Input
Amino acid sequence: MLHLVDASFFVFRAYYSVTPEMTDGAGRPVNALYGFARFMGDLLERARPTHVAVAFDESLSSSFRNEIYPAYKANREAAPEDLKRQFGLCREFCSLLGLAVYSDNAYEADDIIGAIATRMRVAGRPSVLVTRDKDLAQLIRDGDEFWDFAGDRRFGYRDIEGHFGVLPERMADYLALTGDSVDNIPGVPGVGPKTAAALLKVFESLDHLYDNLDEVAGLPIRGAAKLPARLKAHREAAYLAQRLTRIACDMPLAFTLDDLKRRAPDVPALESFYERARFGPMLGKQAHRLAKALA
Output
């Protein structure tokens, strides 16, 4: 199956979980690189995918979403310089592993993953989304899989509602109602996860909800009597949030199935790469195993 990797999540996770005292020969931190390299090698050995795409976020402030809503992700601190440098090394590492690597100034990793998954689905190829980001759950359809690799949990289409609260097709609207504090998206004040999930069990979409506001007060939801007025007052905010939370699966992205085909790792270049990073022999041995498996 096609595996689509939300790389930025795993780079950040490694940066904050692996000791920053891990440095290369020049004394520069390589903790994020090491943790990410361990993750990618383990993923490839465990899943043995034939086709892989690794998607990176390019910037926190250059997405098309920032043009729609300048405060989008404005609550996040800029990445430390040593982490920015390691992001570049992680991309280089993936290329040496023989994997297709994508990033874009105007679109986020989620959009890249969405574009690839959507087009491959039309071609009859389901995807495994390797991530922990609930936003990406909106992409899952029958045959696809959401793989929380860090938590060792997998969710198919029929598992998403039980885990996240709503069907995959309704996830963007769910986030539009609740807002998303991580991305600084306001949503509708007073509408939390339980209320949003309850509403989207009855209504198929944000449009369906707003077209039938007069029915909301009669629903068996706590505070239902006040919900129609609240939703009406914050309609503009809800639809703005929907534009921000919906993954742009129609983004322009040039690729073919052959581009995503996993190629043999460049073992000599990887060994040199590991030596500069002072990683020791373990990852080099793994590179040889990965190359042998594809021979």
